Amino acid sequence: MKFDFEYKAKKNDEGLLIKELLKREKGVSAKLIQKIRHNDGSVFKNGEPAILIDAVNAGDLVQVKYPEGKSNFDPEPIPIDAVYEDDSFLAINKQPGVVIYPTKGQPNHTLANGIMKYMLDRGDAYKIRFINRLDMNTSGLILVGKNPHVQNHFITQGKQGGIQKIYRAIVCGIIEEDEGVIDLPIGKGEDNIKRVVKDDGSPSVTEYKVLERFAEGEGYSYVELNLITGRTHQIRVHMSH
């Protein structure tokens, strides 16, 4: 069995509960602790079955397997460009023109279908947990957690500002300033679907820097964008406004 957590207790760990070690050493959430507690045969101490409220002594080897989940997407031969992979997560360079996961309007031919085949071809079995999203026509890195702890860990980092998202885009028009900040609230428009800049919208901040300008036609600007907030369609809304 491959364990998600292996730890040899030290002298200053004497008396700590296994669940306390999980929280301290791996930052495991209370929700995942509950799932582990109800998953028989997933906790071991010195090779013997244990429970999360068992205390440890110096030298004890603690091993924990997180509860497994499985995705049921139909496997499809969609190219998967894996730029990094280990036992915990998968990083994919998503091509443009591909939807992330199935919806009512597009139940198949998504990145999730491609990952399913990629996973099965390698003899793996895990629940596909998307950590971030990209629009269909946007290319870039997509992170996939292979267990709930990793997914929660990345999401927590994002909320605490530990993950930075840098985008590049070509926009219509010549931006005169070399760099600047767009600080304008974004909300739903009159159709309750399209996002627009509006006074009662959610706070939204985009930092931009012009990398190159093109004079052809009405002109274009190649820009680098740092999203301080992550609103739906923030780049398109802020730049078009």
Structural description of this entry:
- The protein is α+β, with helices and mostly antiparallel strands.
- It has five helices and 14 strands.
- The protein folds into three domains: 5-64, Roll (Structural Genomics Hypothetical 15.5 Kd Protein In mrcA-pckA Intergenic Region, Chain A); 82-159, Pseudouridine synthase; 166-240, Pseudouridine synthase, CATH 3.30.2350.10.
- It has helices at 18-26, 30-37, 111-121, 148-159, 234-240; strands at 5-8, 43-45, 48-49, 61-64, 82-85, 89-94, 129-130, 140-145, 166-172, 179-183, 186-188, 195-197, 205-214, 220-227.
- The strands form four sheets. It has a four-stranded antiparallel sheet, covered by helices on one side. A four-stranded antiparallel sheet has the order 5-6-8-7.
- Strand 5 (82-85) and strand 6 form a beta hairpin.
- It is elongated, with a radius of gyration of 23 Å.
